[in-house]
Amino acid sequence: TVFATPYQVEDPTAAARKLAPVLDLPESEILEALAERDTGFAYLARKVDLPTADQVADLDIDGISLLPDSRRIYPQGELAGQVIGTVGVDNQGLSGLEAAQEELLHGSDGEREVVRDALGDELERDTVVGAQSGAELRLTLDASLQARTEDVLAGIGRRYQPDGATAVVIDPRTSELLAMANWPAIDPGDLDETEPDSLQNLATGFTYEPGSTFKAFTVGGALEDGVVTPRRTFTLGPTIQVADRVIEEAHEWGGGTLSVAEILKQSSNVGAVTIGLALNDEFGDSQFGDRFDRWVRRFGFGRPTGVQYPGEEEGILVEPQEYSGSTMGNLPIGQGLSVTPMQMAAAYSAIASDGVLRTPRLIAEADGATVDPGPSRPVISAENAAKLRQMLKGVFEAGGTAQAVSVPGYTLAGKTGTAQKVVDGTYSESEFVASFVGFAPAEDPELLVAVVVDNPKGDYYGATVAAPAFGEIAKFALPYLGIPPE
Fold it and tell me: Is the dihedral of CA 475, 481, 483, 484 positive or negative?
């Protein structure tokens, strides 16, 4: 830190002229600090590098001094930038884990008593209280997998120029987060040109209508309540009317008979709404959707997941008593509610891990002690979770919405999603969220990836924007993590 004792600077104008090019500051700014002659201390520049400090010392200007300072260093640059977060000029946490874990990471300053003579030269120094270093925080993130995931999102950024994109990679058996990536990336050590919105961790802070990825939970609730089986068939028309709303298929289809498994495979809107209505009709509450709401909340929607990250959003669910006549035409296909990417990753992990919903885990150790992974609870039976996994395999088969995606040697399962964004209270015809959630190996998953892309330009379908990104991440992660081919 370069500072001044203003009343000791004999010629402020000359001093400012010499210091300005060295400190890369306007002369006027330095002169303003030196002009307050009645003060005993004024900052000129903080956290300058050592060569610059040496140049200042070589100027040998009376009243200009140096004070050792510290600066947070990020050796891996942009890697997990939003997750790690940022610090201010005094190294205090401002965002991300830096802010949430400030007390642990920062440590405490010491206190020294310094005696100086009239010229400011130090005569005596005594340590009153020693400084305490901050403690260590170890995350569950895997650096190589984090880097690869960020590379994949950067590719989406270059090709589709979205407003933002995020990906969550998780081990569904333990809910340990292996990667939590955002695009555009930030470098916590160089924020000069960073927009404030870019500091947000989209995985926990971005809320959106999930669209078709939500259909798995519509089917999951109906399975668990015994309303459907994977082979049960429904005769469907090309549209279905619920109160004053007509729901259409995303792709032209003349209607026909589909099984529940085929409804998921082909992502049928009419089929999903039919199942949602059947779930409520079975229990006599189709008007208000109490039964449907119960399953949505059991899968963890409408509240934070509990991941160890600050400011987690909880999404928005409509209370059953506030349903309108057409609400049950929206919810089963993932409209009329909002979720976060982390909620979707956690809920799909329950499908992947025999029906157990676990708290996503980001912090493995704090100050050398293992951190409690958080609560877990069964959501659906292991048998029905296995049935859902089997049906979600169809999405990658011929006729499925992600049939173009594959990872040689592995069987995949998952679901595509394409949802219109709500802009100024109405559904936009030009802005969409493309998403995909999938896992592998399909029978006994050890890897789960959720990809969400906000407002991609040009192509906007989950099947063509988000699903290929899932494939790229899985293609790297599966062998990297030592998960053997099937």
Answer: positive
Q: How far apart are CA 350 and CA 260, in angstroms?
A: 20
Bridge partners, 129 (sequence order): 111
Residue type, 80: A
CA distance 174 to 162: 32
- Rounded to whole angstroms, the Cα distance separating 270 from 315 reads 25
Each residue of 395-450: pLDDT tens digit?
A: 999 999 999 999 999 999 999 999 999 888 889 999 999 999 999 999 999 999 99
Within its chain, how far is the Cα of 174 from the centroid?
Answer: 18
Catalytic residue among 65, 95, 175, 212: 212
212 is catalytic: yes
| CA pair distance 312, 306, nearest whole angstrom | 8
Tens-digit pLDDT profile for residues 272-308 = 999 999 987 766 554 456 888 999 999 999 999 999 9
Largest CA distance in the chain: 94
Say if CB 436 and CB 467 are below 8 A apart.
yes
Question: In which region does residue 14 sit, left (phi positive, over 0), alpha (psi from -120 to 50) or beta (all else)?
Answer: alpha
Inter-residue contact 394 to 261 (CB < 8 Å): yes
86-91: long-range pairs with CB below 8 Å, 24+: 86/186, 86/188, 86/191, 86/199, 87/188, 89/46, 89/47
Identify the CA nearest to 242 among candidates 294, 286, 291.
286
